[in-house]
Design brief:
This protein has 468 residues and is an alpha+beta fold. The protein contains 17 helices and 16 strands. A hairpin with a 2-residue loop joins strand 1 and strand 2.
Length: 468
């Protein structure tokens, strides 16, 4: 008798996303918290204030996509200056590599927009709902008029702040005074309304709801950060040799008699963590390096009259081999960091020099290819050219054109052109050479465009003159 077929083995699907319990970070004060808030104020003062700063009759920083011009104080960048954008991206990557290799996730813990806006949203939440225990109690309570009122006030404040960030973001592309006037009168363009709403809702969702989920599951930096770490990278560490075994005790109790380490197992380091991890379990992907656990642990150590530094910034080698501060600093100068720093500062210097010596004039020469050459009225050979000029400064300028490269070469008539500030223009040239003064074929010549009032503003371009 044949055996019945076996049922196929069911392999459970492992979810890529794990729904964790909501994190209620506890407020903390301390040296690192003060640094974090100082950078919150600094970054937001720059972000919210720079677009309002007037400069030469326009915002100090403006990205005018319609006119294809970027204004950064006195610097005017055109599409031809895209190389500077590429260099900026390279410098950002090098800076990320350098600072991550030296001191871990400094960017994530102190300057990342996700961290900055989460800090602001948590502060708003604390002001309206109260500290951690009150927030937990409120969320666990049934819905009533009081809870609805508190939640409405919190989300209203979140939305107001979020949409102001959206207005500010669009204000870097559209003059913000005009944008605010349009929004006040309910007549913004479709693009303006869309991007204000998009950026506002993105801020509201990321800082209000995603929070640590963004750092744990969405941001790619947490996934590849360990590639840039080594045993001498400065990270947040728990000194297990000093802290374990953990256990509660009264203040003044002799921990050694009880067979305990310095960690009193209070759990405050977990309560203050914005991603809800326990740093005592070792370095984890979720750790953003904000150092809130250091401030919390130091306060507990002060109360227990133990030395600070149970949780501290240190390196893997320093914890294992008991290095002092001077040894940690000395080992920071290793081949990897020296290479990153050298390339970063050399490229930064070269870019600064390029911008400082940049000529605010761009010239493109186009030959008339429909007629390579023709005989002029005076019997000379004439070629036609078109110059495309860009005045990359914010002052009106007048330019003259000169030609050289062949004996007797000349312009059919003096060539001059005036351009308004930060504008473009074209100029058609007829260049002549006496017949028989050059062999048949193409001959290299140069066209020089110079500002009449400033001899340092001068551009020379090469082209060809065709003799039939």
């Amino acid at each position: 008798m044949s055996q019945p077929p076996k049922a196929p083995k069911v392999i459970p699907i492992q979810p890529m996303f794990q729904s964790d319990a909501k994190v209620y970070p506890r407020s903390i004060s301390g040296w690192f918290a003060n640094w974090r808030w100082a950078l919150v104020w600094l970054t937001q003062a720059v972000y919210f204030g720079l677009c309002w700063l007037p400069w030469n009759g326009r915002p100090a920083v403006q990205f005018d996509l319609d006119a294809r011009r970027f204004y950064i104080f006195d610097l005017v960048l055109w599409p031809q200056d895209t190389i500077y954008l590429a260099i900026l991206l390279v410098l950002s990557a090098l800076a990320l590599f350098l600072f991550t290799t030296l001191a871990g996730r400094l960017w994530c813990g102190y300057s990342c927009p996700q961290t900055v806006y989460t800090e602001i949203f948590l502060w708003i939440e604390k002001v309206i709902e109260g500290e951690r225990p009150k927030r937990m109690k409120l969320d666990a309570a049934p819905w009533d008029a009081r809870k609805v009122g508190i939640k409405t006030a919190k989300h209203g404040a979140w939305l107001a702040f979020s949409f102001w960030t959206g207005i500010t973001f669009v204000g870097y592309f559209v003059p913000i005074r005009e944008l605010v006037a349009d929004l006040w009168q309910l007549r913004p363009t479709l693009n303006e309304a869309f991007w204000v709403a998009f950026y506002g809702f993105a801020t509201y969702g990321n800082a209000g709801f995603l929070r640590e989920q963004m750092c744990k599951y969405i941001c790619p930096y947490a996934r590849f950060q360990f590639v840039m770490f080594d045993p001498d990278t400065l990270i947040i560490t728990y000194d297990a040799e000093r802290g374990d075994p953990r256990g509660t005790r009264k203040k003044g109790a002799d921990a050694k008699e009880k067979g305990l380490g310095d960690c009193v197992d209070c759990g405050i380091c977990v309560q203050v963590c914005p991603t809800g991890i326990d740093i005592r379990d070792g370095l984890q992907n979720e750790c953003i390096g904000c150092a809130a656990c250091i401030d919390a642990c130091d306060q507990v150590m002060d109360k227990m009259e133990y030395p600070r530094g149970l949780i501290r910034y240190s390196t893997e080698n320093a914890v294992k081999q008991h290095f002092g501060r001077s040894e940690i600093i000395r080992r920071a100068l290793r081949p990897r960091t020296i290479v990153y720093a050298s390339v970063f500062f050399l490229l930064t210097g070269a870019t600064a020099w390029s911008l400082a010596t940049r000529v605010p004039l761009k010239v493109d020469v186009l030959r008339d290819r429909s007629t390579l050459a023709r005989e002029a009225d005076d019997g000379s050979i004439e070629n036609n050219y078109q110059l495309q000029l860009v005045n990359a400064s914010e002052q009106p300028r007048r330019y003259t054109v000169q030609v050289a490269g062949l004996e007797g070469i000349r312009l059919s008539q003096p060539a001059q052109v005036s351009l308004a500030a930060a504008s473009t223009g074209t100029l058609t040239l007829q260049i002549r050479v006496d017949a028989g003064s050059a062999d048949k074929g193409a001959h290299p010549i140069t066209l020089t465009v110079q500002d009449e009032a400033d001899a340092t503003i001068r551009v020379t371009e090469k082209t060809k003159f065709w003799m039939p």
